[in-house]
């Protein structure tokens, strides 16, 4: 009887949507963890669906608890079951008695705003560990698109508006930037694909704020693009050389600060001149509206939010397919 129960426990019979619902871990993240860390080994149904066992679900719940305690996926993915259980027990024992910042599981109707509010509170309190913990929880519970659109992008907007209005200090901004940078790097890395269309992301010379470009990189990665992130403040010549060398179909730029800058306009014009014909320039960021005239002049695609980034990428992908035929 026990043998039969054991066989059933390890039988691969649950599709990914069921696993996602039972664990609260998004399907995007499940796939990324499998591909990057080999966390699980699902079988395939005759129709090609991933199938998981009860044991897989239990392992995911343990991993989820470890991450909520502040561990990173790379630290726990390769652990044997017994070692993972011991680690989780140790972490939970150490945290016993601490005030819980937020429940481990959330409900879709209100989780976006709850995560955003918790992140803002963490920044206001200079609590980088809590901010990292809340973003980690959001990353586990939400699909990658929702994490970007409803938590990370609004958090960046709040930071930018607060900095301009003087509601937050440079210390707040730097603390948040360090944590968000790690989150975006991790997300983009986990979603990385080798065989998608290539996009280069960066900021032009003089534009030092890089989080907008990193957000664009993550958004493109969720759409199956092979993203090459070059960092911040690159001159037009360097951006163009990287674009040509990688065969990138598009260049995504973030313009945050300064607004209305003649040097930035010159860089945008120079980039257009140096890029191969047919290479799209996609531009977003808080200051991008002040460059509307030059963006129109160089034929750039101007974005207002991360959701419009996806429409732009679809357009570039389609136009590129037409040219290849």
Structural overview:
The chain has 325 residues and is of the alpha/beta class. The protein folds into 3 domains: 1-96, Multidrug-efflux Transporter Regulator, Chain: A, Domain 2 (Orthogonal Bundle); 108-190, Methyltransferase, Methionine Synthase (B12-binding Domains), Chain A, domain 1 (Orthogonal Bundle), CATH 1.10.1240; 194-324, Rossmann fold (3-Layer(aba) Sandwich). It is 60% helix and 9% strand. It has helices at 2-10, 16-23, 27-37, 54-68, 73-76, 81-95, 111-124, 128-141, 144-165, 170-190, 211-222, 236-246, 262-274, 292-297, 306-324; strands at residues 14-15, 43-44, 50-52, 198-202, 226-229, 250-254, 280-284, 301-302. The strands form 2 sheets. The chain has a 5-stranded parallel beta sheet, sandwiched between helices. Helix 13 (262-274) links the parallel strand 6 and strand 7 (280-284). Residues 101-107 and 321-325 have low confidence and may be disordered. Residues 196-323 form the B12-binding domain. Keywords: DNA-binding, Transcription, Transcription regulation. One of its GO terms (molecular function) is DNA-binding transcription factor activity.
